Batch of 2 targets.
Target 1
Amino acid sequence: MNFNILTIFPEIFEILNVGVISKSIDKKMISINTFDIRKNSINKHNHIDSKPYGGGEGMVMMAEPIVKTLSEVNKRKLGKVIYLSPQGKKLTQKKVVSFANKKNITLICGRYEGIDQRVIDKYVDEEISIGDFILSGGEYAAICLIDAVSRHIPGVLGNKDSYLKDTFSDGLLKGHLYTKPEIFESMQVPNVLLSGNHKEIEKWKIQNSLLQTLAKRPDLLDKKKLSKKQKKLLEELTSKAIL
Ligand SMILES: C[S@@+](CC[C@H](N)C(=O)[O-])C[C@H]1O[C@@H](n2cnc3c(N)ncnc32)[C@H](O)[C@@H]1O
């Protein structure tokens, strides 16, 4: 999968040169190409921004440097053009999975007050937000998107079950996790996980996942269509809680 990134700070993306993403780049499963918008500034002072028409605070990134930079991306490799924006649709696991099916994605990172609306109107396929808060630049949102999408590209994670069983993948939170030692600061790993009884362990995992979802994100349970088994285990849990 190929990501094209339009930014005035290409160096920020060096952060992707670690961990699984870096390995996937080395193995050519992912390619990340940054395009420096400032190289297409339209004056000798390297300006890519200007004051907003009609007045108002801050500066706006001008259309021309962005569109010129966009034209540097090989047309065949442009793919879906996304503008990272707090006004966009929220990035969800569902969206992440749909993006992972694309061959090419082009990400436009805004700075200052944002980019000239005419770029969005003519060149952007979708605006994507990573949450209801304001970042100082789209680069951080782009990094989140790239990382989340890359996990779903076959071969990127050693164990494909990792992403299939992640929180949100089937609409629930993943349950509690434990590793060595069995006792840490007088806290014991739940006995069932040490029992070797695979059926009971599986049941505990499903129940713990349901319990965490109920406690931390009940809104997810409202949306989720539980399987018969999940329903039965949830009922078992809630009746125990009442007793
Ligand atoms: C300081 S913000 C501009 C915010 C803009 N003035 C507004 O009120 O909507 C600068 C850039 O950061 C990026 N950005 C900020 N918050 C974001 C979010 N929640 N998700 C995605 N991108 C975001 C966008 O690319 C935006 O152009």
Note: The chain has two domains: 2-150, 165-242.
Target 2
Amino acid sequence: MNYIEDIVATVIETTARKVLIQVPEGLKTRVVDIVNELQKHKIDSVVVADPCYGSCDIPTEYAKKLGCDIILHIGHNKFYKNIGSENMDHVLVLYYPWKINVDIDYNAMLELSKIKEHRIALFSVIQHLHELDKIKDALESMVREVSVKGQILGCWPNPDVDEDAVLIITSGQFHARPFNKPVYIFNTETKKLVKLDMRSEKKRFANIEKAKDATIFGILISSKSGQFQNPDDIEKMLQAKGKKTVKIIMNEITQERLEGLKVDAFINTACPRIVEDVFHRPIINAEDVEKI
Ligand code: SF4
């Protein structure tokens, strides 16, 4: 299937005259082709160059400022929480989860054969969902027993699995949360299999310990539509523990933007992956506040 023709046909059906296009980093190389194809049909467009990690981040403000009729969000399906993104502020959002095939060649087979557990629970990110049956067949040819579980997202609570191990098929970096079983990640870009180590869990508990000594907490709030969380309950919990609080809202939560703020530690109410970045002060996710 030619995805660009398919995308443009979907946009034409909406009768939109101006489109805001949002793509993940990995698809930026294709976006000019989409713009050119839309122009052939006299459809105007603007490309969003801000980083986009998921459908939790829909740029409705840009669409309104630019007078776009629709936002074309490529690379993910609709966010699992209701953020009103089907028709957000009267701007229609079209989701196009671009499918990416997975080449299970000799090297990929070698990597997958490193999984020694017998019964495997198989997950993938949205782009590779259509390939799970093929990957199941490949694993079964190596005498593994495979249950196809479907899509996984870094901010979903993980289900308990009965199998001996978990395999996640992903392109690029993936924020994997620990399961109750060993977790393997197969990266379809590098064609490498890595076993999830417990370093991020050790860092998590070290940060919780350090945060216990903090007096003033910065509560980080994201302005992204799907990551925004009202901070009031978190603030009350901290104040009940005798802590002082400062609420801070921003779009991209980074160390650079937090420099100069005189707080001892941060509570992240946005995407749980953020705490894996480098920060110069302890940072913990909101779900861990009760542990400090
Ligand atoms: S893991 Fe983070 S970036 Fe990805 S969809 Fe969830 S909140 Fe958004």
Note: The longest strand covers residues 145-151.
